[in-house]
Amino acid sequence: MRRLPLIIACIAMLSACHNDPPMVGRPTSNTPDLKEHFINANRTIAQSEETSINEYVARRKWDMQRLPEGVRLWEYEKGRGPKVNYEDSVHIVYSVEAINGKLIYSDIKDDYVAGRRQQMIGLDQAVLQLSVGSRAKVILPSNLAYGIGGDGDRIPQSAILVIDVKVN
Prior knowledge:
Blueprint: H1 3-16, H2 34-60, E1 65-66, E2 72-77, E3 89-98, E4 103-113, H3 121-127, E5 135-140, E6 161-167
Antiparallel strand pairs: 1-2, 2-5, 3-4, 3-6, 5-6
């Protein structure tokens, strides 16, 4: 019988704390539209990166082409071999630096299968524009490099990367 008042008190407290379940999928009138917020934030980041890349290219007077998704490519030594096609296996040697000039990786050797959208999607896009024997400078906006997370080692978060690549 001693437990009955305790049980009644607990039930009363739980009843008083009852809330309606939150509305899922519909923002309230005073809640900002998060999707629109993220779209605007991404647009701002992309515009800022575009400006940084354009200024970097202008300072160096590189004659770069802009690929559809924003990758910049300057083939400064034309290859004499066959053009790299989707699923071709090529050997690449490359160095990576941040847009601020800090060397991150040098002389990385990689057996590369073109078109597989590997770690750096933008590098994949650039390699598909080259021929065996080509040397090129490639600039990757962060979303086509390692994104907001970096590589967990040397490439920082949201890094714009400048890559010097040779296709063998």
